[in-house]
Design brief:
Elements (H helix, E strand, L loop, with lengths): L3 E5 L3 H4 L12 H13 L3 E7 L9 H5 L18 H4 L4 E5 L5 H8 L6 E6 L1 H15 L5 E9 L3 H13 L3 E3 L2
Parallel strand pairs: 1-2, 1-4, 2-3, 4-5, 5-6
Helix pairs in contact: 5-6, 6-7
């Protein structure tokens, strides 16, 4: 049975754009290496893309976070660095909020030996999609390597990793 790597929202706007933060760019090389490792082993890699349109400010999320970001097809929407090239020929789920309903439905119909998540932001979208993975495949180990995720606030990142562990996600690299 294959393993799955979920690369969550490692997009320009979360790295060096409107919601970017120092240090996020340092994840690019290690995430790219993990993608290559999964592919070399014949395992699956899926990407999520935070995706908004001009009406974002009127959404529930947009009212709480009034920062334009990840406008579809704009530079900030693309994956950061070499990951944009690595996503070609991969399954990608565009999502308008933190978790991806499409990803959840996909996972319901595809069994995996394990599901690993990486990307941004640990305390929001990584956490949300980890919960969806746990729900879609309750008997599948779900993993997060702390070296492959981050948040703008290091304390919030640590809290998110604690919550993931409390939810029985295997957190490595702490």
């Amino acid at each position: 049975m294959k393993k799955l790597l979920l690369v969550i929202d490692y997009q320009n706007d979360f790295v060096n754009g409107s919601l970017g933060f120092p240090g996020a760019e340092k994840l690019a090389g290690p995430i790219a290496a993990r993608i290559q490792e999964y592919r070399e082993n014949g395992d699956d890699v899926i990407f999520t893309l935070d995706t908004h349109d001009a009406g974002y400010a009127e959404t529930r999320e947009g009212k709480a976070l009034p920062v334009s970001h990840c406008q579809k097809s704009c530079e900030g929407w693309k994956l950061f660095g070499e990951l944009e090239e690595l996503r070609k020929d991969s399954l990608c789920f565009e999502k308008e909020t933190f978790g991806s309903a499409w990803l959840f439905h996909y996972l319901e119909g595809h069994g995996y030996a394990s599901i690993e998540l990486c990307g941004l932001v640990s305390s929001i979208c990584v956490l949300s999609n980890a919960v969806l993975a746990l729900t879609a495949q309750p008997n599948t180990p779900v993993l997060v390597d702390a070296r492959l995720t981050a948040a703008a606030d290091p304390a919030m990142n640590e809290k998110a990793l604690d919550i993931l562990e409390n939810l029985q996600v295997q957190v490595a690299g702490r």
